[in-house]
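Exercise 7. Predict the structure of UbiA prenyltransferase from Candolleomyces eurysporus.
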Amino acid sequence: MFLSSMGYSKRSSLLRSFPKLLRAADVFMSNKVLQSVVYHSWTLALFTWSDIKTTLIPVSVFGLGTAPVCPSTPISSSLKAVLWLWSILLQFNLNNQTASPGEDAKNKPWRPIPSGRISLRNAIILRWISVAYCCILSLYLRTTTLIPSILFTCLVVLYNFFGWDENGFIKNLMNGFGYSAMALGTVLAAECSSPSESITEVFNFAKYTELIVFFLILVTTIHAQDFQDIEGDRETGRNTLPMMFPVLSRVTMLLFLPLWTTLVANFCNPPIWLGTLYLALSLIVGVRFFVYRRSQDDEWTYFAYNIWLSFTILHLCLYKTQRHEYI
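Solution. The predicted structure, encoded as tokens:
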């Protein structure tokens, strides 16, 4: 009886204090500084919004799944690695969206510049601030992380301001190097650093077999993203592989997806059900690219391609785990 009355009094006290909490929340949200922080934070998020599903999540999974995450601080190390990756993505999107604001105004008017959340001039200033910020963040997390950060910045500048995105072959190479630089930086940010580590020891690429495979897969299949954007790319002067080789580029998807699936599955010996599902998915996606050729179809097929790529990343993480167990 005594415990029951105690519970009742506590509930009554909470109910009486609820209006006060609401008023405090109203005052808190009406604070102009807070509103400004929320507004600008959402603006930064919108710059990277399109890449959360296609880049941030899969590359985070790849990096954290293949890295020997620092065992003493696994959660904070993982969060730092994801923060580094998101910061690099922000830098890329600031460069990309300030280089072609007209294209975004037509195709993605919700983005910060065409929607008026930030002026083009301020976005350009923020672009250069992001370069310095990424370098400082990389140095803070781990000295060697600065190398993939600088490499990625150079690739972004070449891609957006020197026309390296206008040729399909170079574009695929740039995408492969860009994704690999992001994945490598995520791995390095998640690992424990040692004061005595040498650059040659850290960048011994014999340790990164799965990263090399990931790079080759991207170079040979990443034009999957270009089928749905043929008209927009034609207007902006790009010449992607689907535009250069309309039929052959689709044939390559039909061939390379099952081929890479077979090779990756042989690397890591997954359970039969997982390997079967992985191979079936590659065949479905490859056939869709070859058979269904409308822009709307290509959009859905590209979504399926990202699912296949996620399965590929899962298998590469499995390979890395098995390799560590073997060693």
